[in-house]
Amino acid sequence: MPQFKIHHVTRYTYEVPVRDSANQIILFPVKDEFQTVLKQDLTITGEPAVDIYKDYYGNEVGSFMFADAHTELKIDSKIEVVTQPRPLPTDSVPKEEQWNSLQAIRSQVPFIDFLKQESCDVVDEIKRDTQVGQYLKVTPLTAAQKLNEYVYQEFQYIKGVTSVETTPDEIWKLKAGVCQDFAHILLVMLRMTGIPARYVSGYICPNHNGMRGEGATHAWVEAYIPNYGWLGLDPTNNCFVKDLHVRLAVGRSFSDCSPVKGTYKGTSNHSLEVGVSVSYEDGHVQDDHATVLTAQPNTNGLQKSDENSYRRYLEMIQQQQ
C-alpha cells in the first residue's frame, strides 16, 4: 500500500490588478476502496469560501469567488493519499458473450456518454488505418489492451507540441503529444469498437523505474470490461493502472476534468504557472514539474493560455514533407 504526498500549485499572475475571479477546481482525489485520502490542505489567495459539490460524473468539485482586486491568484493543494493494488480481469467468459453484454448496455444511462464520440472528423481514417475489425475478433479486454499498445507505439511523446484545446483530429495527424492527447485518441478507438471509455485525470507517482508523466498531472483512460467494471489503461506508458496512479476525476474528455478553470474581469495579459511534486511517505521526492504559459487574447476577446507550439511544429513537419 504505497502512501504519497502530493503538492499541486496553480498560480495566475496578472499584468495589472483584476477582480471578480470566479473559479472551479477539481483537485479532490476520488475516495473509494482503492484510494484513501488521509489529509488535504487547500489554500487559496484571499481565503475565499469554497463550495464543494458532486457533479454529474460523481467528481468532487469546488467553486469560489475572489472579488477583490488582485495581481496574483494562487491555489495550493497538499494531499496525503494511500492507494491499493487493483486485481486484473480474469477474462474467462467467451468473447461472444462479452461483446453481446456491451451491445446490451449501449442505451443505458451510465454508459451513453462514454460511448458517444467527441467531435472527430478522422474516425473513418482511424478505422481504416487501425483495421478496427480485427479487435472485434478477440475479447474486449484483449482489444482494449491492444489499442492501448497501439497508441503507445504509434504516437510520440513530445511536450509542448499540443495544448488543452488540441483536437483528436490534430493529434491523429501529428501522431504526437502528451498524456492527455494519448488518452483522447484511445477514447476514440475504444468507443468506435463499442467499449465504453472515460477520461481520467490525476497524478502518476514515482516508481523509481521511470514512467512518462511521473510527478506531474497525468491523464489516462478507463474502459468498461464486462464482468469486471472500469479498467484503467495508461497509453502513455502502455500499462494497466494499479497503485501508482492517483485519480482526481473522470469524464467524457479533458473538459470535464480540468483541475482549474475560471473567469475574471480585467486584462487579458496574464501568465499561468503549474507545479506538481510527489513524494513517498519515506520522504523521497520526485522532482518538481512546472509549466509556465503566457495568455494571449484570441479573436473573440476571451482569455486563453496557448503556446501555439503545436502550430509551429505542424508547419515544420509539413515543410519537411
UniProtKB/TrEMBL annotation:
**Which domain of life does the UniProt lineage start with?**
Bacteria
Q: Which InterPro entries match?
A: Bac_transglu_N, Papain-like_cys_pep_sf, Transglutaminase-like
Pfam families, per the entry: Bact_transglu_N, Transglut_core
Name all Transglutaminase-like domain ranges.
171-237
Q: What is this protein called?
A: Transglutaminase family protein
Which lineage is the organism of this entry classified under, starting from the top rank? Answer: Bacteria, Pseudomonadati, Bacteroidota, Chitinophagia, Chitinophagales
